[in-house]
Specification:
RNA-binding; 50% helix
RNA sequence: GUGCCCGUAGCUCAAUUGGAUAGAGCACCAGCCUUCUAAGCUGGGGGUUACAGGUUCGAUCCCUGUCGGGCACACCA
């Protein structure tokens, strides 16, 4: 068998139809040539609705146009026949020999099969997770992580040069609260007890960090409590205590008392949490090229710079002592504060600077993966980008809905406030990395996800992860019993593969590159999950109906080549989702 | 109240972005292991795509309205 370029029959036929159309349409009809895979075998392998699209501009019967198109269609070595059907569909039938050649192609490209260089190394950045480093990641972050990582793999597979980035919110008040919380726990360890604020961080990990500081520095950061509690805000005339104001005062006092040491504790807790987060994600198979510090934007004057730019371009005004950005000029529902009365920049201000910085780094496209609750934030960020005379089209925001855990058919209660949340690490420990990665992306990302813990753990046919992995393991098992070098299958004769099941499986393998392409285009990893389910199903049927290790050598080898290439595609698809492909189960 | 998202089989979800008879899994029923892993396979029932209109050759998809659910409406991050 001669080697040949990776064929994409869909694109190939689209090209032929385009040529045919150019012969019968003189003016630009702006008709899109779109081929779709057919659902029914008697409709052929690919179908095109071009004739129906041209019916109006040409003022002709679609079936008539279809006939003209077919007449003008250039010859193709892959085409068995063409038919007109229904209202004017053009149905294309692939030659069996063309289908069989996919096997050689899969072996040739091995773990790159399905990948393309269509995007020609265009620079794309995808920012995801970006959770505050103030505590362990929880299951909500997990979905963003799984989605972002899979999407990044998909984008890379279609030829983008991908940069994965985690935006570290190390500058805000939340970090101060964590610093204070840790120091209070540390003081407790030295017998100095101050009522622990209810709105400070309650988690056990805070006590753990306090222990670490004590171990390393004994009583170096101990100070007496009366200083810490001085000038606390009092209840108002209604007896209501402003807890947030109290917390702010505690933070301010501790900064004063600790002096330079405050920065040490701040840095310590940040490093601890970030390290934990990085480790957690690594074990989840999620890695980043870049961890971008929000604080660095302040340190380098980029926040002030961004705000000045807006000022210069007359998109700021001053009211009630604050600086407002005219985001309502760009479709936002109201204007937004970028600098407060006390001179502090808002989170939005640093986010403008961050996006300005992203664009200045020269990415062709920037993707932000956010929780769906942030959707209201999009207009102001895009507005700022536009105000700074950059192209808002170059920013794509992918929203990910929350995941709700179910155990024993009941919702697992979760709320950050009560500290009652399931961490990503706990989830991984319970269901394993593979099930977690797969379940997170098996639904469309903008849909709520019901995550069934019992199902994810079950080792049964109900569990889609095992179903797919099992198909892979089965192939491995057959090949190991065959006990010869798989490489010898790479260029064997596959003419005997003509049964309906074999043809269906071949067609499924042919689809893989198109599946990757559309999944990447739509930012839809779930498409891969569904595809793998289908492919595994096709394989299991074949496995059940066919014996592979038959005495007739040519048939045996052809069948083994088919299942070995199926294994390759299963493996490539699972890799895109960050799921392992075990050889034994 | 305003804006965005959603409503598809008993349950969880798809549907190549306007295409042909709306598909999978689970659950339910009936079969298949002396044979390469039964974590598998084969067959079956199950639908007014929330509802009412509209646009056109053609609508789950686009437009309008109604009902129901989620989210967001900070000088928080």
């Amino acid at each position: 068998m001669t080697s040949f370029e990776q064929p994409n029959f869909k694109n190939h036929f689209a090209e032929l139809l385009k040529l045919a159309a150019s012969k019968i349409v003189t003016s630009d009809s702006n008709a899109r040539i779109e081929l779709t895979r057919t659902k029914q075998a008697n409709h052929g392998d690919y179908s095109c609705n071009l004739a129906m699209q041209l019916a109006k501009p040409l003022r002709k019967n679609p079936r008539e146009i279809a006939a003209l198109l077919i007449e003008a269609l250039p010859d193709s070595p892959y085409l068995e026949k063409v038919e007109i059907a229904g209202a004017g569909f053009i149905n294309l039938f692939l030659k069996v020999s063309a289908k069989q050649r996919i096997i050689a192609n899969i072996f040739q490209n091995s773990n790159q099969f399905g990948h393309s260089d269509a995007q020609n190394d265009k620079k794309i950045q995808i920012e995801f997770v970006s959770a505050n480093p103030t505590g362990p990641l929880h299951v909500g972050h997990g979905r963003g992580a799984a989605f972002g990582a899979s999407l990044a793999n998909l984008l890379s597979a279609v030829g983008y040069s991908v940069s994965r980035e985690y935006y570290v919110n190390d500058a805000g008040r939340q970090m101060d609260i964590l610093t204070l919380s840790t120091w209070l726990r540390y003081l407790e360890l030295h017998g100095i007890t101050i009522p622990f604020p209810s709105n400070a961080y309650q988690g056990k990990y805070v006590r753990d960090m306090a222990h670490l500081i004590k171990q390393a520095h004994t009583d170096r950061y101990v100070h007496q409590s009366e200083f810490l509690l001085q000038d606390m805000p009092l209840p108002n005339q209604d007896g209501v205590i402003d807890l947030e104001a109290q917390l702010n005062k505690l933070i301010a006092n501790s900064k004063e008392i600790l002096g330079q040491d405050y920065a040490y504790i701040h840095n310590f807790v940040l490093t601890e949490q970030l390290g934990d987060c990085r480790n957690d994600l690594m074990e989840f198979g999620v890695v980043f090229e870049n961890w971008f510090s929000e604080q660095s934007l302040f340190d380098n004057g980029l926040v002030a710079h961004a705000v000045e730019l807006l000022e210069k371009k007359n998109y700021l005004y001053h009211q009630d002592g604050a600086s407002w950005f005219r985001s309502s000029d760009f479709g936002d529902e109201k204007d937004r504060v970028v600098q407060r009365e006390n001179g502090q920049f808002t989170y939005f201000a640093s986010d403008i600077a961050y996006h300005l910085n992203k664009f200045e780094r020269g990415f062709d496209l920037v993707i932000d993966v956010w929780g769906a609750d942030h959707h209201g934030y999009i207009p102001r960020v895009k507005g700022a980008i536009q105000a700074l005379e950059m192209d808002p089209e170059k920013l794509e925001v992918a929203l990910v809905q929350f995941a709700v855990l179910y155990r024993d058919g009941r919702k697992v209660p979760m709320s950050t406030r009560s500290g009652e949340f399931v961490t990503l690490r706990e989830l991984r420990n319970e269901v394993g990395k593979d099930a977690a990665r797969f379940f997170y992306v098996m639904r469309k990302s903008d849909q709520h996800l019901d995550f069934d813990l019992d199902l994810a753990k079950s080792q049964s046919n109900e569990n889609p992860v095992y179903y797919i992995q099992y198909a892979h393991a089965r192939v491995c098992s057959v090949l190991s019993q065959w006990n010869e070098d798989v490489a010898t299958l790479h260029d064997i004769n596959t003419e005997s593969l003509t049964s309906p099941m074999e043809l269906a499986l071949l067609q499924k393998l042919i689809d893989f590159p198109d599946i990757i392409e559309s999944a990447a285009k739509e930012y839809a990893p779930h498409v891969i999950a569904f595809y793998l389910r289908d492919l595994a199903s096709e394989f299991h049927s074949y496995y059940n109906a066919t014996r592979f290790l038959v005495p007739e050598i040519p048939i045996r080898l052809a069948r083994l080549a088919l299942i070995a290439s199926t294994r390759q595609v299963l493996c490539n698809g699972l890799a895109l989702l960050g799921v392992s492909a075990p050889e034994k189960m």
